[in-house]
Design goal:
The chain contains eight helices and no strands. With 240 residues, the protein is mostly helical. The protein has one domain. α3 packs across α5.
């Protein structure tokens, strides 16, 4: 329908001043476009910041899990176990320690000559070397505040595969925490149960849970590295 003012102007034979009409219309659309661009830029920057925070948290978690796995090398039962623990010990010494020191954790930097000699050790010798110390009796839980916040409702801009990878890490952390809690419960029971038969049962259950915690830590570490690869952060995630 033709606006009344245009119809009247046409009927009166008067010319239409298009500048007065087109100017405001163009100004409106330009303003709207600039607003949309600004909002989209804000969203993009927020997504980029969140993605960077996720990568940082995953890398820190990788270091923690690597150190945890190395502590349980005394549980190695076969050649596959020995290789798994030896590879993780080497990764932590060559990559994990440097990454931990970069965020302020006070760790001694090995001398280049010492590091070279360390890397020359075979898997069995390396695992035996680290198995000689104090054995772990309880597990440790890990917190993932950035992943929790992201999965709670800030998934915009992430692909299905990325969400799946991060969700898997979160579930593995939950299961790791459960195993850690069980190790503590059975360790406490070992000091309170005095009946020899029941004490033996408690000790067996405790050892079983410690082994379960170790396996869970290895599984979660693999999931963390998969998530890092999925997010495109693979510089030193799995190699050194």
């Amino acid at each position: 329908m033709i606006p009344a003012v245009l119809l009247q102007a046409s009927q009166a034979g008067k010319g239409i001043d298009w500048e007065k009409i087109v100017g405001p219309v163009i100004g409106f659309f330009v303003g709207w476009a600039l607003f949309e661009l600004t909002e989209r830029r804000k969203v993009w920057m927020a997504q980029r910041a969140l993605r960077g925070a996720l990568v940082s948290e995953l890398r820190h978690t990788e270091v923690l899990l690597s150190s945890i796995v190395a502590k349980y090398c005394f549980l190695a039962k076969n050649e596959a176990d020995v290789k798994t623990f030896a590879d993780e010990i080497r990764w932590f010494v060559n990559v994990g320690k440097k990454r931990a020191m970069s965020v302020g954790l006070a760790l001694d930097e090995p001398a280049p000559q010492t590091l070279s000699q360390f890397n020359d050790l075979n898997d069995a010798t390396l695992v035996a070397l680290f198995s000689g110390g104090k054995q772990e009796t309880t597990g440790t839980s890990l917190i993932l505040p950035v992943i929790d916040a992201m999965l709670a409702g800030r998934t915009t801009g992430f692909s299905d595969h990325e969400i799946e990878a991060l969700s898997t890490v979160r579930w593995q952390a939950h299961l790791l925490a459960q195993d850690a809690e069980w190790t503590k419960k059975f360790l406490d029971l070992s000091f309170t149960v005095t009946d020899p038969k029941n004490h033996d049962i408690v000790s067996i259950n405790h050892d079983t849970r410690v082994a379960s915690y170790s396996r869970r830590a290895i599984t979660m570490l693999k999931c963390v590295r998969t998530a890092l690869t999925t997010l495109g952060a693979t510089e030193d995630a799995t190699a050194w």
